[in-house]
Amino acid sequence: MNKHKNYHLYGILTIVILILLVIFLSLFASRKSTTGNSSNHNNGSGTQASSPSSSPGTDIIKDEEDDADISAYLEEQDTIISDMLAGMSVKESGSAEFDFLIGMIPHHEASVELSKNYILFGGENKELKKLASNIIDNETEEIEEMRHLIKEIQKQGISDKKNEKNYLKFYNKMISSHQHIGNETESSSNVEEAYIEGMVIHHQMAIDMSDTILRYSNHKEIRSIAKNIIETNKNEITQMEEIFNNM
After folding, report:
1. Whole-angstrom distance, CA of residue 199 vs CA of residue 118
2. Burial class (CB within 10 angstroms; exposed 0-12, middle 13-18, buried 19+) of 239
3. How far apart are CA 166 and CA 213, in angstroms?
4. How far is CA 161 from CA 73, 96, 168, 185, 222, in A?
5. In the prediction, which pLDDT does 183 show?
6. Which whole-number Å values give the CA distances from 179 to 61, 84, 88, 161, 170, in the listed order?
């Protein structure tokens, strides 16, 4: 009797083990099938998924390149502005006209260098690159004109200390207020933005200097240069602002 009872228990255990084995094999097969389908979906010729145009790694490299360009541009910009301000230090000469030219030449030189700096580290915007090239050409030519005019004024011995005093009063105040001009572009996100923001401020300095000399000089050639600087710089500021708004 006990022997038959044991056989009965062994039979039940065997059935339970077989049932568990079947369940286990079914689950394993189902999991393998799911994995295979997923692989086929990603790698098969009929898949609808497409590779991204740029991997995250590529985007990171591009961002790093952009950061390197803006950092290099701003570093060189700071050097150019620092040299400009040092060069624009004017000593009394007795002539407001002479002082105007002595200050405007390094200002123009900085404009040329800033534009070259933009083309070197930026230059992605074709319209802005063309404008920068025009600034280089036009202001390089004006520098030569002003150097020639300095010699003429020295020969003529032009002197008016009262007008010079009034001119330098404004001029020195303006130079003092622009000691940290480079700070205005520190938050720029790209080279184009930094160039435009810096040049608008820079051009406005030239306009202010020219407006002031027109009040204190009747010299025909000086007035002609000053009026041309005002007109040209105002037009270029307008162009740069339009480019900025369309970026």
Report:
1. 11
2. middle
3. 10
4. 41, 8, 10, 38, 17
5. 75
6. 35, 10, 11, 26, 15
**pLDDT tens figures, 90-149:** 999 999 999 999 999 999 999 999 999 999 999 889 999 999 999 999 999 999 999 999
Contacts of 34 (CB under 8 A, 6+ apart): none
Cα–Cα distance for residue pair 92/237, rounded to 1 Å:
31
Alpha helices (H) along 44-95: 56-87
The pLDDT value recorded for residue 178 is: 83
Nearest CA to 179 out of 98, 242, 95, 85 is that of: 85
Cα angle 112, 174, 183 (rounded to 5 degrees) comes to 65
Is there a contact between 173 and 100 (Cβ–Cβ < 8 Å)?
Answer: no
Q: Where are the alpha helices (DSSP H) in 178-219?
A: 191-216
Q: Which residues contact 213 (CB under 8 A, 6 or more apart)?
A: 96, 97, 100, 167, 222, 223, 226
Q: Mention every residue, 6+ apart, whose C-beta is less than 8 A from residue 111.
A: 135, 139, 199, 202, 203, 206
139 phi, psi to nearest 5 deg: -80, -25
CA separation, residue 34 to residues 23, 44, 134, 178 (Å): 17, 15, 65, 68
Q: What does the pLDDT read at residue 167?
A: 97
Q: What is the pTM of this model?
A: 0.72
Give the pLDDT confidence score for residue 247 in this predicted structure. 87
Instruction: Please check whether residue 239 is in contact with residue 199, taking contact to mean a CB–CB distance below 8 angstroms.
Output: no
Q: How far is the C-alpha of 237 from the C-alpha of 235, rounded, in Å?
A: 5
